[in-house]
Specification:
- This protein is an alpha/beta fold and about 400 residues long.
- The chain has 2 domains: about 280 residues, Alkaline Phosphatase, subunit A (3-Layer(aba) Sandwich), CATH 3.40.720; about 110 residues, 2-Layer Sandwich (Gyrase A, domain 2).
- Helices cover about 30% and strands about 20% of the residues.
- The chain contains 15 helices and 19 strands.
- The protein has a 7-stranded mixed β-sheet with strand order 4-19-10-3-9-7-8, with helices on both faces.
- Strand 7, helix 6 and strand 8 form a beta-alpha-beta unit.
- Helix 1 packs across helix 11 and helix 9 packs parallel to helix 11.
- The radius of gyration is 21 Å and the shape is globular.
- About 55% of the residues are buried.
Length: about 400
């Protein structure tokens, strides 16, 4: 096995001990702060002195798919091509989920390490990420959501339910994330992979604010598993795909800009198409509402585009409107997979399409969501000391594997 391998213009050293990268979905840093203050996360608290605690930026849009793929490729969406959970495919003229590996434009660190002779394992909470994270991977890759369907031939492992000792959890539960950690402990002990990637779900963070009993209980669960992984001799590198914020008015009502309705009322139906890249198969807890949208214009001449931009920018709850060129440059996005315009919602606001297209019946608690600049800051936490890091360097969540493999003492 070679000591180094190369992926997407970066070099990585093969790990000398098992290295586990944990992507905690929706981990606003305040969740960890409050869990530590309440005494719910003593292991994470210990890393303030025994390890390294930093912060970095996720990619925008601050959604699950683009950020998980950025983490495992070590590159922004302009390189790997995944710019949302959902997008408008201009070739087929269809709105589609970005779950299929055919949309991936770059190799992953996971696959390339396995090709270089490393043992690699991936456990993700939701199955929507499995084909992307496991693309060309020679190793273990399965989801907690479909753990009862795991086979040696397809997923590189079998009998995972018996090994974990848990039934298949509901996709809308904290237990789905717990299954990921429990499986990770089992795999570390038995298969001892060189690199393991664990990706959770943000169900709890969508439902419960930092410091609430439910949130602290979730981080206490996670803290216990992280300690077990640490005590089993693993290097731990912990980050998040995005943060999370309340998206409500002063009395707790959803603060929504129905952008498609507003554009239809001003310019007529079919003049613009609003795409919400937060959309995925699991919309109960957020109603497909996030703080990022992209807009396709039927008439995209400069005058019309400028008028639409000015109109959208005037709407309360909108933080910024960017052209395709501006957004692709600023956020490192693939220009051919976003509309003529990109719209960002303010910290306490979300963007919708047409009101009738959103089922809000599942929002039994005040709306919490993500997608914009206000959810960009995420933790970068390690159970080892880092070395050789330039203080002036802008850290990103997709630097986490580089830091874990190349910069830990």
């Amino acid at each position: 096995m070679s000591r180094a391998f190369h992926v997407n213009s970066r070099s990585y050293m093969m790990p000398s001990e098992p290295t586990i990268v944990v992507c905690v979905d929706g981990c606003e840093q305040e969740y960890i702060n409050q869990a530590i203050l309440s005494g719910s996360a003593p292991f994470l608290a210990s890393l303030q002195t025994a390890g390294t605690v930093l912060e970095g930026d996720c990619v925008v849009p601050s959604f699950t798919n683009p950020n998980n793929l950025s983490i495992v490729t070590g590159a922004p969406p302009s390189v790997h091509g995944i710019c949302g959970n959902f997008f408008f495919d201009e070739e087929t003229q269809a709105e589609v989920l970005m779950n299929d590996a055919r949309y991936l434009r770059a190799p992953t660190i996971l696959a390339e390490m396995s090709r270089a002779g490393g043992r690699v394992a991936v456990v993700t909470a939701k199955d929507k990420l499995r084909s992307l994270l496991g693309h060309r991977l020679e190793g273990i890759c399965f989801s907690a959501e479909k753990a009862d369907q795991v086979t040696q031939r397809e997923h590189g492992i079998e009998d995972i339910l018996d090994r974990v000792g848990m039934p298949v959890p509901s996709v809308y539960s904290a237990e789905l994330s717990e299954f990921v950690f429990a499986a990770g402990v089992s795999i570390l002990k038995k298969e001892r992979p060189d690199l393991m990637y664990l990706s959770t779900t943000d169900y709890v963070q969508h439902k419960h604010a930092p410091g609430t009993p439910e949130a602290n209980a979730f981080y206490a669960m996670m803290d216990g598993y992280l300690r077990r992984l640490h005590e089993a001799g693993a290097v731990l590198a912990i980050t998040a795909d995005h943060g999370m914020n309340a998206k409500t008015d002063s009395v707790g009502r959803p603060n929504i800009v129905f952008l498609q309705d507003r554009l239809d009322a001003r310019y007529g139906s079919h003049a613009a198409r609003v795409i919400l890249p937060i959309t995925d198969p699991y919309v109960v807890h957020h109603g497909a509402l996030g703080s990022y949208a992209t807009v396709y214009l039927r008439d995209a001449d400069d005058a019309r585009q400028g008028d639409v931009m000015s109109f959208i920018a005037s709407i309360r709850g909108v933080e910024a409107v960017l052209t395709r060129a501006e957004a692709s440059t600023r956020f490192e996005l693939p220009a051919d997979r976003i509309g003529e315009l990109v719209v960002l919602g303010e910290r306490l606001a979300v963007l919708g399409s047409a009101a009738q297209q959103h089922d809000l019946s599942g929002l039994t608690v005040p709306l919490r969501s993500h997608g914009g600049l206000s959810e960009q800051q995420v933790p970068l936490i390690f159970n080892r000391k880092l070395r050789g890091i330039d203080d002036a360097r802008r850290l990103r969540n997709f630097d986490v594997i580089d830091l874990a493999l190349n910069h830990l003492a």
